[in-house]
Write a structure and sequence with these properties.
The complex is a heterotrimer of chains A (about 120), B (about 110) and C (about 240). Chain A is mostly helical and about 120 residues long. Helix content of chain A is about 85%, strand content about 0%. Chain A has one domain (about 5-115): Fumarate reductase/succinate dehydrogenase, transmembrane subunit (3 helical TM bundles of succinate and fumarate reductases), CATH 1.20.1300.10. Chain A has four helices and no strands. Chain B has one domain (about 5-110): 3 helical TM bundles of succinate and fumarate reductases, CATH 1.20.1300. Chain B has four helices and no strands. Chain B has helices at about 10-40, 40-50, 55-80, 90-110. Helix content of chain C is about 35%, strand content about 15%. Chain C contains ten helices and seven strands. Chain C has a five-stranded mixed beta sheet with strand order 2-1-5-3-4. Chain C has a two-stranded antiparallel ribbon with strand order 6-7. The chains are: A mainly alpha (about 120), B mainly alpha (about 110), C alpha+beta (about 240). Chains A and C meet through helix 1 and helix 3 of A and helix 10 of C. Bound molecules: iron/sulfur cluster (2 copies) and FE2/S2 (inorganic) cluster (FES).
Chain lengths: ~120, ~110, ~240
């Protein structure tokens, strides 16, 4: 892939995931506002998302989108404020992406499993 | 703020970048705590009751505002890049700012 | 009014240097360029600066005035020195030759890199191209065409400062006007040229360029157009 093409696709991925994330965040914020009434407990969380396929799908989309979205922004920042080369920034991007995926899915699948 | 940066859209950009970085650092902690529910529900509950403390509540409100700010700031960028927008862009900054503060207030009122 | 004076600090030297302070008599409708010229003619003949037309056409007189890049020949003192102080520096983001004159080579070099020149397709046998003033593409081109290459936007842009190879608002704005010229034959190549690591995707839409362009052009909007055009081309496999 040429660097021009890579640059364009990175930009596009960040924008598409941004649009998806906007929807996810609105839902997430609404849930938070409702959930914090009367305090949050692990029971409450598990009762809501445990074993629920729609929530599993929702949070999966959420995690994947974040994992694609955040590294692009991080790379822009590194590129502008550090002297890291193209390769280094791409490795950092990949590492952050994997970290978010692993930690995110650990939580999402874990919570889903508790209700089953 | 340097003179050439002191205008609404630059502030919006700066806030967007700062909130993005802050959220990136917060995310692993958030996932870690939720992951606790799987192995040790008791630890999670201890943690969750800790979040009832006023100071923590305030920090959490900060996070809610950060998330709302980053989202609305992102919508600003999408609007600039994808819509025919030339004239109403300054209002976009104002609207997005208002929305994030509103989200934070809603959270605080509800939690209180 | 002419009995009053204004205190002016002017940058002397290259990257290394210092401000020198001058007292300049105030006059009605005085511009920043008038002040600099007064200093050079009456107080300090060694002062280097650049200007030509004095009426906002040539784009050669831009300097940093109280922290913001401006075209000095059409910037009135009343507008920028409200608190009575005036500090004049060379443009940011370009190497200083001496005093207030910067080396514009990089700025113009990037126009070339962006392939921001017209590529003709017609021959002398062809008729004139018919372009309606209401044509949407014509309108896009018209909105960005009045650039005078002053470098104000380039100097205001933080992305230029942070990312050495960023092409900058002026070159990209020009590329967008050409992209909307139906007579132009260089579109595909140009889109490639403006999407590398220093290309249009690097723009953060902070609009310092739009805020300060003396011709009230909106490079951010032009760059947004290029972003969409490059995505289309990339999805079609053309880039
Ligand atoms: S909007 Fe883009 S071109 Fe204009 S100042 Fe910001 S980064 Fe530079
Ligand atoms: S776009 Fe505006 S600020 Fe930039 S070079 Fe052209 S006239 Fe000057
Ligand atoms: S001297 Fe020509 S634009 Fe100012």
């Amino acid at each position: 892939m040429t660097s021009a093409r890579a640059e364009i696709l990175e930009w596009l991925v960040q924008r598409v995931t941004a649009a998806i994330l906007a929807v996810c965040v609105i839902v997430h914020l609404a849930v938070i506002v409702i959930a914090v009434q009367g305090g949050v407990t692990s029971k409450e969380i598990v009762a809501r998302v445990g074993g629920s396929v729609p929530w599993l799908l929702f949070y999966s989309v959420f995690v994947v989108s974040v994992a694609l979205h955040a590294p692009v922004g991080l790379r822009n920042i590194l590129r502008e404020y550090t002297s890291f080369g193209r390769r280094t920034t791409h490795w950092i991007m990949a590492a952050v992406c994997v970290l978010i995926l692993v930690m995110g899915f650990r939580a999402v699948i874990g919570l889903y499993g508790l209700g089953a | 703020m340097k003179a050439h940066r002191n205008h609404a859209n630059y502030w919006a950009f700066a806030l967007h970048r700062l909130s993005g970085v802050a959220l990136l650092f917060f995310l692993p902690a958030h996932f870690y705590v939720l992951g606790l529910a799987v192995e040790q529900a008791a630890t999670l509950d201890m943690f969750l009751s800790w979040t009832e403390a006023p100071l923590v509540k305030l920090l959490e409100t900060g996070l809610v505002i950060l998330l709302a700010a980053h989202m609305t700031g992102g919508l600003r960028v999408l609007a600039i890049e994808f819509l025919a927008w030339r004239d109403w862009q300054k209002s976009v900054v104002a609207i997005t700012g208002g929305l994030s503060v509103a989200a934070g207030l809603l959270f605080l009122l509800n939690a209180g | 009014m002419s009995s009053e004076t204004i205190t002016v600090e002017i940058w002397r030297g290259k990257e290394e240097g210092e401000f020198q302070t001058y007292q300049v008599p105030r006059m009605e409708s005085q511009t920043v360029l008038d002040i600099v010229t007064y200093v050079q003619r009456n107080l300090d003949p060694g002062l280097s600066y650049r200007f030509a037309c004095r009426v906002g056409v040539c784009g050669s007189c831009a300097m940093t005035v109280n922290g913001k890049p401006r075209w000095t020949c059409r910037t009135h003192i009343d507008k920028v020195a409200g608190d009575g102080t005036l500090r004049i520096q060379p443009l940011r983001n370009l190497p200083v030759i001496r005093d207030l004159a910067v080396d514009m080579t990089d700025f113009f070099e990037k126009w070339t890199q962006a392939k921001a020149q017209f590529v003709p397709t017609a021959t002398r046998a062809d008729d004139f191209a018919q372009v309606s003033p209401d044509d949407p593409q014509r309108k896009e081109a018209s909105a960005g065409i009045e650039c005078i290459n002053c470098g104000v936007c380039y100097s205001a842009c933080d992305t230029v400062a942070w990312l050495g190879d960023y092409l900058g608002p002026a070159a990209l704005n020009r590329a967008w006007t050409l992209h909307n010229d139906v007579r132009d034959g260089g579109r595909a190549e140009r889109l490639k040229a403006i999407s590398g690591s220093g290309g249009c995707q690097a723009c953060h839409s902070h609009q310092s360029c739009f805020e300060l362009c003396p011709k009230h052009l909106n490079p951010t909007a032009s760059i947004a157009g290029l972003k969409r055009a490059t995505v289309k081309a990339a999805l079609k496999g053309e880039i």
